[in-house]
Amino acid sequence: MTTSNAPITYASAGVDTEAGDKAVELMKDAVRATHGPQVLGGVGGFAGLYDATALTRYRKPLLASSTDGVGTKVALAQALDIHDTIGFDLVGMVVDDIVVVGAEPLFMTDYIACGSVVPERIADIVRGIAAACSVAGTALVGGETAEHPGLLDPDEYDVAGAATGVVEADALLGPDRVQAGDVLLAMGASGLHSNGYSLVRRVISVAGWELDRDVPELGRTLGAELLEPTRVYAADCLALARADDVGVHAFTHVTGGGLAANLARVLPAGLVADVDRSSWVVPPVFDMVRRLGSVPWTDLQNTLNLGVGMVAVLPADGVDAARRLCTERGVPAWELGVVRGAEDVDLTAGGDVEIVSGTKGVHGGGVRLIGDYRTS
């Protein structure tokens, strides 16, 4: 056995606990800003504490939970050295899955794995998470930063998070409420959000485009467009769900798999949603990806949101009120299509019609995509 003359310490192995402590000091004010009186114990405890006394007002509270990450979009944040927006992508991916069932997201935790703790960078990431939690009305009650030298390069990191919410049992939204005659109300995306970046990054790489390239059709640099934060819909969806004159039956969060695949998950067997591809103009970034990589429309629509980040399924007589509420809240919204009984729909695909059903292990209704996408 050979031994080293120099003592081996945790720091010499690549882990800097003092840097971790400094990162906490830099981020703690932003985290505390998300705390209401329900959060106990402050920042730095072993566990985040949340006073659940408010749940006693529920007749039958159902807890909802979700966990997710950001995916390969973090590679762009690292390449651009901009880290204070990726938190919106993380929070959006997590809390907007919870709100789909009508649940109010109560609290969230985050996890950051990195090659080396750079306090300012970690603090920027967490400040972004905290800012997004504030938009969602969610408390950030804790988190963890783990330094993994040798596993990740010094400038590499990944982020993940989990959240818990609550909904009254008889207010639960989903397929059981959806009926023939319901209308699909699209809620506009802010951009690519956080899905399909493996495709997007591959297209950009093959084309040889740099992130600082000015792209006239986008009105800014390629990097700025690709790093555009995910729109966080939680508070907007809850406002719609709680509006008596809207009467939402279901939401679908348009993430991995695209619009049709995610919409099919909230439709019961025996119903088909007609989606009119011409009902909106696909934002320029999606068409840029299509043209630059010669990506087929089918592949594009099955990977990216194409400008629709969330869909509300609601009775026809609630559409006007829902659109007004979305407008008041600064969320673009439009009628996307309608839900029909399968017996009233010609399910023979052909021409510009495509049928999508049986996705994510859910075998319920189907989605019929009709018409052509508009890019101008």
Q: Could you describe the 3D structure shown?
A:
With about 375 residues, this protein is of the alpha+beta class. The chain folds into two domains: about 15-170, PurM-like, N-terminal domain (60s Ribosomal Protein L30, Chain: A); about 175-370, PurM-like C-terminal domain (Phosphoribosyl-aminoimidazole Synthetase, Chain A, domain 2, Alpha-Beta Complex). It contains eleven helices and 15 strands. The strands form four sheets. Strands 10-12-7-13-11-15-14 form a seven-stranded mixed sheet. Strands 3-6-4-5 form a four-stranded mixed sheet, with helices on one face. Strands 1-2 form a two-stranded antiparallel ribbon. Helix 3 runs parallel beside helix 4 (about 120-135). It starts with 16 loop residues before the first helix and ends in a 6-residue tail after the last strand. The relative contact order is 0.15.
Set out the fold topology.
Blueprint: H1 17-32, E1 39-40, E2 49-50, E3 61-69, H2 73-80, H3 86-98, E4 104-114, H4 119-136, E5 139-147, E6 157-168, E7 183-188, H5 197-207, E8 214-215, E9 220-221, H6 222-226, H7 234-242, E10 250-253, H8 258-264, E11 271-276, H9 284-293, H10 297-301, E12 308-314, H11 319-328, E13 333-341, E14 354-359, E15 362-370
Parallel strand pairs: 4-5, 11-15
Antiparallel strand pairs: 1-2, 3-6, 4-6, 7-12, 7-13, 8-9, 10-12, 11-13, 14-15
Helix pairs in contact: 1-4, 3-4
InterPro entries: PurM-like_C_dom, PurM-like_C_sf, PurM-like_N, PurM-like_N_sf, PurM_cligase
Pathway: Purine metabolism; IMP biosynthesis via de novo pathway; 5-amino-1-(5-phospho-D-ribosyl)imidazole from N(2)-formyl-N(1)-(5-phospho-D-ribosyl)glycinamide: step 2/2
Subcellular location: Cytoplasm
